[in-house]
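User: My instructor asked us to take a sequence, write out its structure as tokens, and then describe one feature of it. I'm not sure where to start. Here is the sequence I was given:
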Amino acid sequence: GTPQKHDPTFKGPIYNRGCTDVICCILLVVAIVGYVVVGIVAWTHGDPRKVIYPTDSRGQFCGQQGTANEKLKVKGFAAPLERIPTSSSPRSQICVSKCPDRYLTYLGAYSSPTPANLQYYQQFCVPEFDDLSKVRQAVRSGASSAGTTPSRAVARRCLPAIQANKGVIMVGNETTYDDGQGNRRNVTELLEGARKANMVLEMRQLAMKIFEDYTVSWYWIIIGLVIAMVASLIFIILLRYLAGIMVWVMIVMVILVLGYGIFHCYMEYAKLKGEAGSDVSLKDLGFQTDLRVYLHLRQTWLAFMIILCVVEVIIILLLIFLRKRILIAIALIKEASRAVGHIMMSLLFPLCTFFLLCLCIAYWASTAVFLSTSNEAVYKVFNETACQFSGQTCKPETFNTTNVSKLCPDAQCLFAFYGGETAFHKYLIVFQFFNVFMLFWLANFVIALGQVTLAGAFASYYWAFKKPDDMPAFPLFSAFGRALRYHTGSLAFGSLILAIIQVIRVTLEYLDHRLKAADNKFAKFLLGCLKCCFWCLEKFMKFLNRNAYIMIAVYGTNFCTSARNAFFLLMRNIIRVAVLDKVTDFLFFLGKLLIVGSVGVLAFFFFTQRIKLVQDTAPSLNYYWVPILTVIVGSYLIAHGFFSVYGMCVDTLFLCFLEDLERNDGSAEKPYFMSPNLKKLLKKRNKGRPDA
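Assistant: Let's start with the prediction itself. The structure tokens for your sequence are:
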């Protein structure tokens, strides 16, 4: 690309700018309106009760207020419990007031001298069988089970209450049960369903204990997160003074470690001299599954030593030739710390981005739930004997007035499944896809808005000739207003490209999951290549978008122009880009490691009551790892939020620095805007100015 020429009117972020990428702005507004319409339609047709409440075979909710099943809060099975009810056996599910707590068969209840057993048994039949004399008919037709099994309510559903006693699987203190057909069965036949039930119960108990731990330790968790916030802020401030020391210490440590590696390889090489079998070449030995065999060969240690020597020489040569660029990177990092110090509100701005992202995710999740529950109850004709209407759809309220009930006397109109045949239900998958696509688009738009806002604020710091006197009064709010007023279209353009790539990646992951069982190696290979390519493309677009947003914030150009100018500017300074990127990555990694590690260790010693000064203050917990992990994850998120602001500041100052070098030459007409430290490092000065 062509280097930028000096513009005498340029004094930092341009205030007199126009709207960019208007078409993409209109497209985003139309998409958001369509997204709202989809949400309204989903909320109109959807019913989240289908997720919360179980239904019986007639599609009626169990335990729902204002319904016939209001007092029947759990779902039992009228069919034998070892059979899982399906849509082909719709009569097997009923709502009951409580799960059965005993073994009882129909024959046992019917032959019992007390009518209480038969009355108890009757409650596990469908409501139509209100006469005790009809219970036998209910068993024959499948409307009632041939026997009940002790069960427990799990997620409002009755599942066998299996327990283990000294390694023996039991249900109701029995190892076998009567299936109601005159056969004795082992309770292990119920094990699969009960295992899931026990898992749910154990998870519920675990959740309750975790909740109890949070109730007694939440304020200590908040204190730990505050400590992480303060530590992150202190680390950013200290970078102004210690960035150079930390970078050079890291470089020296790498050189020393490589030097020790070379020394260790030489000692192993010398120690193996004269030992039997140590002089065998790697070529003669061939491939061995036991890799320890290679450690007994002198040639192995000689190869390690040569590789480490080559790496050591390369690093030393890079330090010799890139020492000035490393110093520039350190100076920019120190300057970024000063910029953040002058715009302290920038450290709180990620909270705004986080809040908007939460709104996007909440809207997506609620719309997805309503869309997934917007299917209507479909009723079909079921009968015991042959009937030409079997399997056809029907309506329960008008079924008795149709010819079906006359031609097929034993036919019933029963709930089969949730579905629908309207245009809305036919395009339901399209609405779900649109919902996912809009999540990615809006999430990327929110992130882009945060990046442009921070870039505009930090650019106003760099292009202030007298820092911070020439800075605007509220640089962060000014940058936010410019981004929304003029560049919504550009942000929508960049986020749209990312959203398309991410949706393709999600689709490829779905196809990969579906093809795992297939034995098509070519398809798997092709899919793996596509996944790798789109992963690389997403990483590149994130890098390009980030720098394009900086150029948008500074110059007010459209997305394509900004992306092109940023790309060519970075390519003209590719070595500086690589050095700065690695130096900042190291410092951010070190900062996160120090903050998360120190706060995590402090939380561990506190919650395990190993600090004697506050031993009595620490709460008593069921699982001490609950608050510790919460503090560690929260500390990482806090540190990541602080360093994301700092990283945006470094990238913005770096691009402004490169533009400054290309546009200006230090003369009275073209003075440098960089800080005195950078000018001193580059041996540059502003001629004829008192701050030169």
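For the description part of your assignment, you could build on this observation: Residues 22-41+214-369+428-685 form one domain. Try explaining in your own words what that tells you about the chain.
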